[in-house]
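Tutorial sheet, problem 5. The two components below are modelled jointly, 947 residues in total.
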Amino acid sequence: MVHAESMKTDCLIIGGGISGLTCREELAKLGFSSVVVEKLPFLGGHAVQFACKATDRCRNCGACLVVESVRNIGASEEVSYILSAMLEQVRFNEGVYESLVVQESIRINPAICNACGECLKACPVPNAIEKTPGCARFYIQNQLCLRAQNQACSSCAEICPRSAIDLSNSGREIRISSFAVIVAGGFEPFNPLLKPRYGYRRVPAVVTALELEQLLRKDQLNLPSGGAENASIAFIQCVGSRDPKIGHNYCSQVCCAYALRLAGLLKFKTPSLEVTMFYMDVQNFERGVQPYFREAFSQISFVRSMPAEIRKGEDGRPQVLYHGPGDERCLQSFDLVVLSVGMSPPETMPALDFLGRTADGFLGDAGIRCTSSAPGIFVAGAAQGPKSIKDSMHHALRAAWKTASYLSQSNRGVHS
Amino acid sequence: MSRASKLNRGSQLPGTQNADFEKVLILGGADIALELAKLLGQAGMSVVSVGPETESDIEQFKVIPDGVVRQVLGTVGAFTVLIDTLDGSVEEKAGFLVAAYPGDIVPLFEAYGLKPSRRVVSLSHFRRALRTDTFLETRKSEWLHAAFLMGLRGEADPSTFNDVLQCIEMLGSQEKVQTYVFTRNIKVSEEGLDARYRRARESGTLFFRFDDDGPKLEIEGPDTVKIMFQDPQLLWEMELTPDILVVDEQESASPALEPLFRAIPSSRCTKPYLTPDSPRYPDVRASKAGIFALGPSRGEFYPDKIQGDVEAAAAAIMSLARTLRESAAAATARVATDRCTLCLTCVRLCPHGAVNFSSYAFVDGLSCVGCGICVGVCPMMAISLHEVALESEEVDQDKSSPEKDKPSQSPGIVAFLCRHSAASAFEELPCSLKMLVKPVMVSCAGSVKESDILAAFLGGAGAVIVAGCFRGNCRSVYGTDIGSQRVSAVQNILHGAGIEMNRLVFVQAASNAPENIRDAVSMLAGEVGAS
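Model answer (structure tokens):
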């Protein structure tokens, strides 16, 4: 660690996803400053990588707003955010939270990079340089970069026409004093390897819905076409949700929504596509949901059964084994099987271990509240429990209000 | 110009504006009004509740008991609300309006072919009876079989299921009770519901799920109903004559929202709720500044969510009040008073209800989002956009000069791009396509006038693209619809003049969906290049 710096702000926001960004924006409107700390090398979290689900009209997923929110920040200069950084320690001392943040090296200067792509061509390691979602620039994946493993490679820095790459940069420690903290650490997608019977990573053409989102976003989804049969795709709902066996005794609230939207988008793009959805119960996800369901039920085959197993068929395609009505054993092959993975609580953050958890294992107080067991620490978005993009934005607005009230009641805040 | 003098224009009582704009009028909901009043009171705002009589020790809290809102006039910071009370009409001034009406609840007896009776009751009726204990006290020591019908006529929601679970949980403390739920889908997409559903099942409630309309209901006597069905799992024919049959209800927004709808021109697209059904309106804020909708008024019926709306409303009101105090917003649309003929087209069509009128139309700076829809609809061309106009002037120069700079180039494509969506989508196009296009940033697809499109052709464009947000995603609710209608109108003009219509297209885009713009540019590049 070369640098040791300190910063002062009204509120430290942990997490630069849609909840953290919304908190930042709303706090600013209420007159308070904030600093956003994000562990990834880009802002926008999971949702910035999602596809637009619009068909001939908007389907209300809200993913576009995340991109816009990231772009708006890119345009304004007064914003403080620290990327590729982890929260190491939080201490409460005489009404002030003293936090220690450790930032990995940022080797491509985001203010200079214009995504010309020369570094990408020069880099010897695949995927070590990636496009920043929602922005026209690149970032280096430190775990893949040869330089980070102490090897003498400097191909990217040598070729960069704008000298945006500084390989000597090796991270820093930042001490942040704040009067309040908002935890907006988001969720972890459920890891389908914990349900081995679904064959993830073992059976070809079994992907998670998140992977499908990213394929669609990058326009890289290739379904077989031109054969005698129409291409077919299956969605398996409730993977990692409503499953007491794995301790997830809750509904993830977003999977019916995204699966039906993704299915609708795929059907819109390829009307001949055959979509089957394996489910327990269809959950509501927007107001006036009935016409939406009617449309979905006319386009998609719904099978009320949770598959027993997904295996590789003789033709190499994934085969879904399930119990049909009357308990008969059914076997059906698909070109692609999508696991609608649910939301798991955010990874443990040792620095925040003192915060209470909800019955479902998420952070802060239950009942969709924004408070926590610690005064001055608030929770926003999916860190508190599963939430859609829209619900996260709404929750973040509330968290910003709670924080602002706390700051002004105790006469804190540098701007109050 | 200070904020106070700005407000003067709409206000009839000079000198009272300060008090008025710090005042919040809460319409309809007694409990919610009280909670919001507490939060806002702490922040120094005063609250007037129009609705049921409420007792409170909160300072600066007034109730207009049993008031019914008749009309809403004005804009944020200076609303005038006409209220009918038992003692006649009153006029109340306020800076902010919050619709907190309870939902309208209609039991679905008729849809199930049933009539309410001693044994056939609605869900809220039964829940009330259980809560007040009248039901449990009068029950005999025999077995009680209680059956719930949920979501078999129309879709249920988590708030209905929460009510059903509450009844089951209250009955659970009793001995000799058997509960049954007949439904299509168990609605558990709210915190804690799935765990409670499992507990109910484990403590003996039988859940039957159907893919169709569910069991056959046969009226046996004046108040007994026989439920006949095939068990969906065991495929056995079953019969049940419950001691009590509980029928679910349909919840919707209150009809009392009508006067607020009339105050927001774009509400014709949001009815029966006050906020647009769009990701751009994720919280309590309506499309007109200063108007907020809590819970059922915005289509949210779940108790914890309604509670959350109270905090969200407090947040939204305080941040807007801060903008008001600092008069931070500047009007982006302005009306040239000498040209205005008071036709009121702008008043009727401004999606944000930002245009008011006295002897001429004028735009409220805080309500205006600068979409420019009024500019396009004004038949007298009396309205112009400021701020934004500066931006597009630069682009305009750019647009008119390419032929002079590079005479050898193809005529090129002019693309009008909505700054919310299409502009960032355009950034994602490969450079090879981008260089074929002269981008013109616009505030909304609905602000692109016929004359703008024709001017682009006259300026030498070989083709024109108008790109807006997807339908239902427009910040200004119907800007996309206006934009696409204009494009169709110009296509007809071109067709009449013998020009190929396919040189002009309207596309929908999102900041994460550049495909439609990309396809349009590739297609038009071929057309333009071929000619």
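Marking note: DSSP finds 18 helices and 26 strands in chain B. Full credit if you identified this.
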